[in-house]
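Morning!

As promised:
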Amino acid sequence: MSEEQNHNVSRRQFLTYTLTGVGGFMAAGIILPMARFAIDPVLQAESAGDMKAVASVDDLTDQPQRFDFSYEQEDAWNTSEVTETAWIYQEGDEIVALSPTCTHLGCTVGWEANQDHPEEFFCPCHGGRFKKDGTNIEGTPPTEPLHKYEVEVQEGTVYVGKAESQV
Amino acid sequence: MRWSTDDIPSFVKERQYVDTALVPMLPIDFGDGIRQSSAMTEFITVMTAEIERQFRGRMLLVPPFTYLETKDIEECHKEIEQWIQHMKKEQVKHVVMITADPSWKKVEADLDELLVWMPLVPFENMDAEYKKQVISEQIKQLLPLVMDKWKGQ
């Protein structure tokens, strides 16, 4: 008789088991989402959208050419399409993509935009000038070189990422 | 630069460089002309935003000058003159006004500053690619006008 009783679960044991089980679920329900939030940035895949296709390698020459590319940008509750420009040229094996934003006050510069200054980038606003590699020319308002895009080539297509300062 | 809390501080700081005001001029009509009025607003807003992007280091895009379509253009002329006088008092050297309203043609000669009238291109039903092309074509024609104005000092 006493042996059979041992096989039975006492009220106290039953309650302990159930409470541990239910408690475990509840704890998991609280902790899992928290953990998920905490490690979320790690799980976020580096999306291909960060690099944008702009040109085909075959189109590049040793003279900077203008390429436009656009992408969607989310800005609070607005999603808008943004168009950006890159001046791209190839020198030897290196592909250089420069941002057209003047480092002075942000106007848009153009390659050989002024006849008086060939082989240079020119800013129409205050006459800022940059050499082909983006270096600012002493004596003009800009204080640093044109920003340079990260460049990646995949299967003959040029992709650009963020424009970063050269200094 | 835009009329925003982000850009205005740098405008105040860099005032000696930002010497041009860009003023969109938009007629308002609540009657039969409401479609036309909205099309003009859309068109001019896009155009001025694009010009601002090109020349943001030297231009301040100010809020649009809006007026009732039915108002006499001479009256509007007087009012915009006041705007110009006020801006000039505050160190603005050049004012560029952009409109799609043909009535301004009548008073264009009396304005000292640059008034650009652009024939309205209705953007409705235009696909995005074509729209972009139209805008950049128009802008290409407009940029030299602004640069000439600067050269003339």
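Chain A has two domains: 2-43, 48-164.

Hope this helps with the figure draft.
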